[in-house]
Amino acid sequence: FTVFTIILCRWAGEPPWPPVSSCHRRILCGAFLRFVKLHMFSWMPSILKPPDFLQTRYGAGSWVVITGASEGIGAAFCHEFASRNFSLIMIDNEMEKLQAAASTLKEAYPTVLIETIVTNFEQSAEKGWVEGITDQLKGMSISVLVNAFFRQAIFDSNTTVEESMRKTVIVNSFPTVLLTQKIMPRLAERYEKTKLRGAIITVTADTGTITSWHPGFLVHTATTSLSNICTVLAGMKFQESVDCLSINPMAVSCHNVDGVVTITPAQCSRSSILQLRQGVKETNGWWFHCLQSSILQSLPYSILYKMWPQVVQK
To answer: CB-hemisphere CA count at 13 Å for 198?
Structure first.
């Protein structure tokens, strides 16, 4: 914490050394307390207990609905649940990628049942879109919904096309809200009959909360917040029967290679399932992203204003 904040403060023109200025104390204390309060106590029990609770809690062989299942975090969740013998309903908007991802899973897990649904998320605001999906889910014992499809877009106010912004709002908002609204009552009804809980997992991105002041992130921030609120409120209403988790990771590698500040989709999905066991409602996923978020959210705007444009450019 100390080395990191000293470097940032020197770069932003804050009092540099020794790290006893009010700026340093505010950053260090805020980041440390935020990290301990939100993450540390939920992480330590999870590390000691493997995530073998999924089958007994949600029902072995039940169906898991995953959007954005072709790649990234959505595909990683497919592997996590398939490895525990859950049946999969993979939803995405590109048929070739979806079929390729499903074929890979079938080769790795021959006994797992896999169904695919191709849909256009940009049409999710149209009447009948969600019914077109839920009609294909009739008769299936659904236990988990993973909302992992979203578009992270940075808009320049000088060059932004209005239609692109509108599509981003639709894609990041309507699928999560509508699918959660339709499937949540089914999970609660299933619990009444079988006493097996259900789960709603929503994946967004923490950059939306950290950069809420940045004009280029306004659309992303608004839609991210809506998805988070939808998941958290749903969890409060159905807390007796459904577990709800909102995942807000930082930078996740698209090539399954972790780096200095990035993690792999597998790390994000695996760590999130660990925290789901502890009843956590909102997380950054991997412990290192929890640490990053705690530090960044404790930084004063004078540092963020100077730092973030270069991050966005990269």
So the answer is: 28
Q: Which of the four pLDDT bands, split at 50, 70 and 90, describes residue 197?
A: very high
Q: What pTM was computed for the model?
A: 0.77
CA angle 161, 164, 166 (to 5 degrees): 110
Residue 313 reports pLDDT greater than 60: no
Q: Which two tokens stand for residue 233?
A: 């409120």
Ramachandran quadrant class, 278 (left: phi over 0; alpha: psi -120 to 50; beta: rest): alpha
Q: What is the mean pLDDT of residues 280-284?
A: 75
What whole-number distance in Å separates Cα of residue 40 and Cα of residue 287?
A: 8
Give mean pLDDT, residues 260-275.
80
Rounded Cα distance, 166 and 27, in Å: 37
CA 186, CA 184: separation in Å to the nearest integer? 5
What would the 3-class secondary structure string for the chain be?
CHHHHHHHHHHHCCCCCCCCCHHHHHHHHHHHHHHHHHHHHHHHHHHHCCCCCHHHHHHCCCEEEEECCCCHHHHHHHHHHHCCCCEEEEEECCHHHHHHHHHHHHHHCCCCCEEEEECCHHHCCCCCHHHHHHHHHCCCCEEEEEECCCCCCCCCCCCCCHHHHHHHHHHHHHHHHHHHHHHHHHHHHHHHHHCCCEEEEEECCCHHHHCCCCHHHHHHHHHHHHHHHHHHHHHHHCCCCEEEEEECCCCECCCCCCCCCCECHHHHHHHHHHHHCCCCCEECCCHHHHHHHHHHCCCCHHHHHHHHHHHHHC
Give residue 137's pLDDT: 92
Q: Please name every residue paired with 202 in a beta bridge, in sequence order, or none if there are none.
A: 147, 246
Which amino acid is it at 239? Q
More confident residue, 191 or 42: 191
User: What mean pLDDT do residues 279-293 have?
Assistant: 71
Are the beta carbons of 61 and 254 closer than 8 angstroms?
no
